[in-house]
């Protein structure tokens, strides 16, 4: 059957992990898919969390169902997304001010949920994780890990594209086309080019996270979201190698997650008005709290340079019969609006967590398939993502290059088997753009060509360019040159560079003292006085 | 060890003060951590419309040629900025439309020179550009290392290869009346940029690159050499970590390398720079001056340190040590009689001296005059 290029089987709104996962699942089941994202991949809650590969232990006591989901998905992701994951293991520590009696409740609940939780001697915990607060009086080891949400999101989207899916980033849905009680398509506006386009499909999936409330409104249905802000800090060194949690009821700033070259402490939790979702800022009080509480997990944090402060908005869903928002579900919410509201062709998938994105995608795709009358089983739990066909990045690097350089190994750790796509072997492609994270020209061009990166911030999410200690001071200009070559518009790139610096400053000034302030002064000088941006 | 004056900081302010004092026969030591703002100097002296005569003399005697012709300079990202007093490397253009056609020449694999941005900036002024890269056999070894194509490594090579570059440029040049090159010439020998200009039948403009700045490094080396030729003691790679002071007078300072061999002096000059150079330190609660514990002028509330927009003027850049009229640094409200603060450690506390290079040079001369007038 020939279809117009503007017609699809399903359109997915939202380029976070839920949308990307749903697109992959739909595409693998043979559907013609289009994903529309108003900004870049993983710009909402997906990219604004700890990057913790939950074992589920955190939820075991309070929410056994979520804990069970987490540990199941944890095991699946280790198989299908190995290049996005570090199998670090994690600790739940009890400090002298905590109740050691809670440890037993915690371990029992973990075991009920099927999580391997093992009580270990505090002395062993100190050996396994030298950065841990030496005053600890109890420790439990759990199968936590860390996950790079940007990579995970990009890999899902790449696989969707390999299965024929299409992706439109930086494209905003300006309206939903509805005929009577049926949703038919969307009006869109490309925010970079100003082009408007309409797309049509018999089913539209709302995977907009916290912004899903607005998308639902456009479709004429109501999905009440409950925006809760969480603030986090990124430290410039990887202080810990194991995830460190507090063994007590979940509270503020009680998880420290190592990831790549850094570690992340978080979070806080504050309800914010819906209008603030697009402009969440980290306050000095939140910063102080995160440092004070973080230093209780790993005392070295109090003297470690902080790279960035950032905040995300959890897409919590208010229960239907609870307009006050008190009865909040942290579980997955999949709404077929035909059954719920009598609006045909519209599905909302929300709630949930980064950890359970694949399960959310499966539920959403099952709903889509049911509506389209397609009977095909989900295979995402067993089929590796592109890049994760093999588990050891060092083995992969040795297959691609005879004697891989550190930069090539770093690229393989980021891209898995996808690193074989990086043009390399000649000195121009191997030249380093980012020295902090060892990102080459070839890897930047790969992200532009194959991973839909169109701006410097997009590149940062896909390659870690600008995520290191200099925070893009040197590499931003170099990468801007490559982007300008790719899209051929210097003025757009100059503006992009300004926005990159502003985005960087937004994360820097809440923690602007010490070395961060030194770096900021240097950057001010270079960009204003030396380069003349 | 005893000197007439000990200067903390070997940047523009410290070197100008050191040379001036040493020239007057005052035995002077400069303690330098090795890094300073000259290493990312644009080549134009900010807030110095006209060089004071003594500055021209001082630079001339150090072999540094300045030129003063208010006009436009082409910035690395393709914009034009007004500039006046500059190093000779910097071309000051009478008007933005300075050529009918330009040739922009980059180096293959060199990502720190922004040919595309420059071309865009020139084309906005109606100047068509052709872009070429210059491949030299001798550069290949450098290009093998993925992180080697940076300004200093290239400039070292160009100290040897510049004549070959001139030959190649003569071939590349067609009907263009201006050539734009990355500022990677003349690291050791200040005469090279001018000799390149003379060798090419078109206007040659050196456009800046990502730091380190080649003319800046050279200028720093020339000033340092001048200071040493005059008999000054330059302690490179050392850092002042403590000071001995008693009843408003500084007696000696302690450095990391010299340890118990204190540096004693009749006068001390603090030219240790702003935050980047660690002249000022900050933590979440305060901004401090780490060596003498001087009074720092800053906003108490941390949220007042920053403007949320990166491009706006940032309040923290105005923070600086407090001084009296004669640049004596204040501690607990009282001036230290023989300690002068100069250069960017003053932040915005002494606006009459200007900012950037202007602040460095003017405050250095002001402190020198005090020292030469008053013997303690």
A few lines on this structure:
The complex is a heterodimer of chains A (533) and B (376). Chain A is 37% helix and 22% strand.
Alpha-beta classification of chain B: alpha/beta
Low-confidence segments of chain B, ≥5 residues, pLDDT <50? none
CATH homology superfamily name of the largest domain in chain B: FAD/NAD(P)-binding domain
What count of helical segments of chain B does DSSP give? 8
Description:
The complex is a heterodimer of chains A (533) and B (376). By secondary structure, chain A is of the alpha+beta class. Among the domains of chain A are: 83-145 and 226-318, D-Amino Acid Oxidase, subunit A, domain 2 (D-Amino Acid Oxidase, Chain A, domain 2), CATH 3.30.9; 422-530, no CATH class. Helices cover 37% and strands 22% of the residues of chain A. Chain A is globular. The N and C termini of chain A lie far apart (52 Å). With 376 residues, chain B is α/β, with parallel strands linked by helices. Chain B has 8 helices and 18 strands. In chain B, 50% of the residues are buried. At the A-B interface, helix 8, helix 13, helix 16, helix 17 and helix 18 of A face helix 3, helix 4 and strand 13 of B.
């Amino acid at each position: 059957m020939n279809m117009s290029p503007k017609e699809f089987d399903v359109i997915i709104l939202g380029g976070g992990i839920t949308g990307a996962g749903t697109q992959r699942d739909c595409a693998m089941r043979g559907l013609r898919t289009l994903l529309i994202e108003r900004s870049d991949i993983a710009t909402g809650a997906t990219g604004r969390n700890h990057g913790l590969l939950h074992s589920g232990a955190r939820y075991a006591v309070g929410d056994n169902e979520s804990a069970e989901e987490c540990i199941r998905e944890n095991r699946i992701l280790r198989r299908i997304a190995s290049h996005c994951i570090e199998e670090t293991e994690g600790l739940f520590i009890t400090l002298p001010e905590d109740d050691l009696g809670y440890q037993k409740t915690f371990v029992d609940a973990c075991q009920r949920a099927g999580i391997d939780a093992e009580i270990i001697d505090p002395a062993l915990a100190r050996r396994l994780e030298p950065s841990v607060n030496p005053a600890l009086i109890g420790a439990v080891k759990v199968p936590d890990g860390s996950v790079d949400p940007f990579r995970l999101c990009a890999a899902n989207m790449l696989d969707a594209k390999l299965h024929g899916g299409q992706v439109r980033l930086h494209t905003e849905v300006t309206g939903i086309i509805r005929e009577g009680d049926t949703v038919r398509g969307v009006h869109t506006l490309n925010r970079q080019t100003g082009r408007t386009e309409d797309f049509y499909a018999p089913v539209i999936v709302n995977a907009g996270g916290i912004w899903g409330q607005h998308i639902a409104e456009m479709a004429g249905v109501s999905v009440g979201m409950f925006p809760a802000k969480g603030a986090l800090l990124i430290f410039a060194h990887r202080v810990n190698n194991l995830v460190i949690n507090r063994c007590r009821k979940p509270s503020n700033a009680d998880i420290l997650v190592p990831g790549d070259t850094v570690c992340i402490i978080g979070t806080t939790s504050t309800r914010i008005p819906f209008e603030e979702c697009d402009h969440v800022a980290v306050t000095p009080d939140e910063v102080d709290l995160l440092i004070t509480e973080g230093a209780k997990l790993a005392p070295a944090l109090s003297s470690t340079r902080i790279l960035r402060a950032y905040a995300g908005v959890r897409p919590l869903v208010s229960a239907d019969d609870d307009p006050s928002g008190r009865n909040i579900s942290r579980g997955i919410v999949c709404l077929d609006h035909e059954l719920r509201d009598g609006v045909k062709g519209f599905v909302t998938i929300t709630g949930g967590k980064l950890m359970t994105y694949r399960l959310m995608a499966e539920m959403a795709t099952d709903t889509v398939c049911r509506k389209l009358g397609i009977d095909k089983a989900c295979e995402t739990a067993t089929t590796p993502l592109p890049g994760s066909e093999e588990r050891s990045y060092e083995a992969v690097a040795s297959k691609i290059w005879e004697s891989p350089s550190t930069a090539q190994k770093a690229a393989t750790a980021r891209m898995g088997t996808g690193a074989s796509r990086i043009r390399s072997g000649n000195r121009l492609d191997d030249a380093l753009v980012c020295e902090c994270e060892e990102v080459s020209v070839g890897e930047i061009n790969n992200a532009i060509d194959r991973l839909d990166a169109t701006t410097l911030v997009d590149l940062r999410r896909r390659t870690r360019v600008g995520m290191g200690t200099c925070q893009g001071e040197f590499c931003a200009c170099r990468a801007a040159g490559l982007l300008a070559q790719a899209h051929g518009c210097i003025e757009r790139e100059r503006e992009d560079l300004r926005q990159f610096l502003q985005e960087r400053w937004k994360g820097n000034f809440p923690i602007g003292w010490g070395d961060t302030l030194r770096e900021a002064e240097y950057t001010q000088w270079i960009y204003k006085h030396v380069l003349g941006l | 060890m005893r000197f007439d004056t000990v200067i903390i900081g070997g940047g523009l302010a410290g070197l100008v003060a050191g040379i001036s004092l040493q020239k007057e026969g005052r035995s002077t030591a400069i303690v330098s951590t090795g890094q300073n703002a000259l290493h990312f100097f644009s080549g134009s002296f900010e807030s110095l419309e006209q060089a004071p005569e003594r500055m021209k003399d001082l630079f001339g005697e150090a072999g540094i040629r300045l030129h003063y012709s208010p006009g436009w300079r082409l910035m690395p990202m393709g914009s034009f900025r007004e500039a006046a007093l500059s190093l000779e490397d910097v071309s000051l253009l009478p008007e933005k439309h300075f050529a009918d056609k330009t040739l922009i020449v980059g180096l293959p694999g060199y990502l720190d020179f922004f040919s595309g941005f420059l071309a865009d900036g020139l084309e906005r002024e109606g100047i068509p550009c052709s872009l070429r890269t210059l491949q030299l056999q001798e550069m290949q070894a450098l290009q093998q290392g993925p992180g080697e194509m940076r300004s200093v490594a290239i400039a070292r090579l160009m100290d040897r290869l510049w004549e070959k570059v001139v030959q190649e440029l003569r071939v590349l040049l067609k009907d263009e009346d201006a050539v734009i090159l990355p500022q990677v010439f003349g690291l050791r020998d200040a005469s090279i940029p001018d000799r390149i200009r003379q060798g090419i039948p078109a206007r040659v403009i050196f456009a800046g690159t990502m730091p380190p700045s080649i003319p800046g490094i050279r200028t720093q080396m020339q000033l340092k050499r001048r200071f040493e030729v005059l008999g000054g003691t330059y302690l490179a790679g050392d850092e002042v970590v403590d000071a001995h002071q008693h009843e408003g007078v500084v007696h000696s300072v302690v450095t990391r390398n010299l340890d118990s061999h204190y540096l004693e002096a009749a006068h001390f000059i603090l030219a240790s720079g702003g935050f980047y150079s660690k002249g000022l330190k900050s933590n979440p609660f305060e901004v401090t001056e780490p060596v003498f514990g001087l009074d720092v002028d800053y906003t108490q509330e941390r949220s007042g340190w920053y403007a949320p927009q990166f491009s706006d003027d940032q309040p923290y850049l105005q923070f600086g040590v407090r001084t009296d009229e004669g640049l004596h640094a204040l501690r607990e409200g009282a001036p230290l009689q023989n300690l002068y603060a100069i250069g960017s450690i003053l932040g915005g506390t002494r606006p009459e001296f200007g900012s950037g290079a202007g602040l460095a040079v003017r405050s250095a001369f002001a402190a020198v005059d005090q020292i030469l007038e008053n013997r303690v």
